[in-house]
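We emphasize that the prediction below concerns an isolated chain of 212 residues; any contacts that depend on oligomerization or on bound cofactors are therefore not represented. The input was used exactly as deposited, without trimming of termini.
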Amino acid sequence: MRKLGFWAIALAVIAFCSSAAQADSVTTYTSASTWQAAVGSTTTEDFADSTLATGLSATFGSNASIGSGVLTVIGQLSTIPTPTVFTFSPGVTGFGGDFDLTLFGNGGGLDLLITFSNTSTTDVFIAGTDPEFNGFFGVVSNGATISSVTLKGPFFGNGESFTLDNLQFSTGTGTGDNGGPSTGVPEPSTLLLSALGLGGLAALKRTRIRYA
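Result of the prediction step, given as a token string:
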């Protein structure tokens, strides 16, 4: 029984550390210069034509079009029409661009579904309140690199209509606190809980030896 308890705790510690390592998030920016400092060198897609920058590919929804140097999306709901998806290869440490949500007025805002290279996901939102957002919006990963971004609208209503210009992405480390991917160093809370778990293992092992 004591041996079963020992291995149960061991498996719990391993499972916790694994899930903690896969918990990824991003820091959002509405200042292009601050975001630029965080990511370092970037590649820019200006949508001057249908040929995308190296390292960037896209699946455009039926409501998306490129013209006059911008990507325009009309009436995007959460899944209808099919959302536009940007895919980065290799994964990037951050991306951003000039988003204009003023097209046709309040549409409910924009949901950016971010998928990381370890398959975990997170969402960030550009609010659809009046006045509608018009400016730079970018993110920097606090963990694994970003492999794709899906542009989704609200669940109901007329959908969000918007334009996107000067999409930028980076694989660099930058100079800011959030620049670059995580090196795999656990957060302080992860270290503490892992230490407590390992301490429990050691205590259980000493008890098993003492009363064997």
